[in-house]
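re the bet — no i am not wrong, look at it urself. input seq straight from the record:
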Amino acid sequence: MKKIALILMGCGGVGRQLLHHIVSCRSLHANQGVHLRVVGVCDSKSLVVAPDAHPSELDDNFLLEVCRVKGDGSSLSKLSGFGACRVFPDSELTAKVFDIASHLGKSTGLAIVDCSASSETTEILSRVIDLGCCVILANKKPLTSTMEYYDKLVSQPRQMRHESTVGAGLPIIASLNRILSSGDPVHRLVGSLSGTLGYVMSEVEDGKPLSQVVKTAKSLGYTEPDPRDDLGGMDVARKALILARLLGRRITMDSIKVESLYPDEMGPTVMSVDEFVSKGLPLLDKSICERVAKASVSGNVLRYVCVIEGTSRCEVGIQELPRDSPLGRLRGSDNVLEVYTRCYNKQPLVIQGAGAGNDTTAAGVLADILDIQDLFP
């Protein structure tokens, strides 16, 4: 039985779902000759580890208790005294992770799985790579930090997986890597990479006011608590930056042109969430409606997309696209990416499917963990 030791960073929706997947897939993985050994779990305030990270692990009952405690909004520190585990405060978290990484990294192996949404994990991840550890990311922020950190993280490509940073569980990163490895140059990417904005744009296409669509999306749980976190386009911009860097563009977030769907005077420092939803959004209805009508005259539709083209173009915002194109036919919260290369020139490679949701994202992370199993003895 091949045993893969891992530390999970981040116990939000994706992290908890990953733990559920690990527990529920025990028999499947056993048939495949693999055992995922969770030796530590941390949130922003605490690290919980097995008594001895070398031979032991946190058992499945404990992992499910982690899910329950974090689902209730409590800190992992609440688990002190529950079962045979050790709890370390945030002041000792980094040192303890390094301690475990130095012991396991180059012996039995260790995977650090980042399902957080924090930029503070970047320093830890860039250092554990040198200790022989593997890094699995759902968190986009480490890969959208400075080029120095990016170069460090991707310096050992066999030890690094980040499929779930773009398109949840869709095989976007893997497909692009295969294309690039074959020597087929990618000259254009166009993608709708936000399930929220994909839903919004397909609904306004049907004539519904933007304000009504956003309110519905918020009630369905499609948006962040503050819809401006989605409507501002920064999440899509981070995904665009990851893809652009994968293609060899040495750019930063400042290099990306980002179109926000709301003006600065409706920003979080000016309007509360309730004010924005009730008073700000209705003021945006007319302009979006006019843009939809204008596009329709030409047989086009509006989609919020990222466009990466040539050596310099990288932008995020609303584009007019043919109604009968893969992006034009997009409905609901699916993600779609069109890949144009030498081989896929007139007819692009199209990757489409559910691009959001904790379940889908966690499944992508789990697949990434299993993909590195050959690096473990």
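see?? Residues 249 and 311 are 7 Å apart (CA to CA). told u. also Residues 90-104 form the longest helix (15 residues). so pay up
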